[in-house]
Amino acid sequence: MISLKLATIRKSLYAMVLATSAITAAQAMTPTSIQMPTGPTGGGYYFLAGLIGNTIQKATGATVTVMPSAGSGENLSLIGRGDVEMTMGASNSIYPAWQGIAQWEGRAIRNYRAIMFMFPNPTVFTALESSGITSIKDLAGKRVGVGTAPVPWDTITGPFLEAHGLSYPGDIRAVYAPFGPAQQQIGDGLLDAAIATSTVVAIQELARSNRINYLTWDDNARAQLAAQYPYFISVEVPGKQLPGFKGDVYKTVDMGGPYLLVREDISDDFVYTMTKAIHENLQGLADSSATMRFVNENPQFLTQALGDFELFHDGAIRYWREVGLWKD
Predict the structure, then answer these.
(1) Which of 74, 75, 221, 319 is 20 to 30 Å from the Cα of 103, by its Cα?
(2) Cα–Cα dist 171/17, whole Å
(3) Who's near 105: CB < 8 A, 6+ residues apart?
């Protein structure tokens, strides 16, 4: 599976100014129903949340309703307003939302805590071998699929290119498109290259009928990104997991894997029970969802930090400490 080398450290649709507060035992709540926004119905977040929701429901008796959403940005806004009890959020959204920077400038969202880190999202840049493009540095002047929309992709793809000495978006011809269509456009000659994650099915389809290149990352750029952005963790993907890849390992960067989040005011005991149930069913989750295989095989990353602030819920910390996975 993917191995993490550095265990270091999206404008939201809605945003509010929320101050961090200490939740006393009297204020803490034990929910009887849980609403959990995730992502589009065809996406990985939605499917995985259904599995996790069933696990939590069996363990706690609370009714868990998994809801489709626009993704991490909306999810953080919903939990920030107190409209939902749980959600999933990409670390590249959680970190700037907590800090009140980038698209959350002056509008920090902090009334949530993490239960666990879920899985890494290794980044790939692909191009046809016939294009002659072999590295990210080669993207100057090229038509590049940079993600679905300026928010949040300009704050993801932009730093990747800038770390390689390219001005973003000035040095490329940026095209906004979802991962799947962007890979198809590479095959059709409409794009020179595109960003994606290593698990995008459309890459497999592109590789079936074309020789493709996975663009190389400069090692110094990877180190710079990991140092500057706590969610851009250096990762290595075994070559056998990448269709058409020539080599043993693809060295890249995690674009910001998700955390399972819960409202801060939910009681420690309830969160402890949820955390315990998920952990004890981790093998079953991994058997049903390939995305969970990584933390099942590398459990030390379940409690991966995100910057220098305390993201995890006290109830989750108590459980992870008991099983020896909390990094004090």
Answers:
(1) 221
(2) 36
(3) none
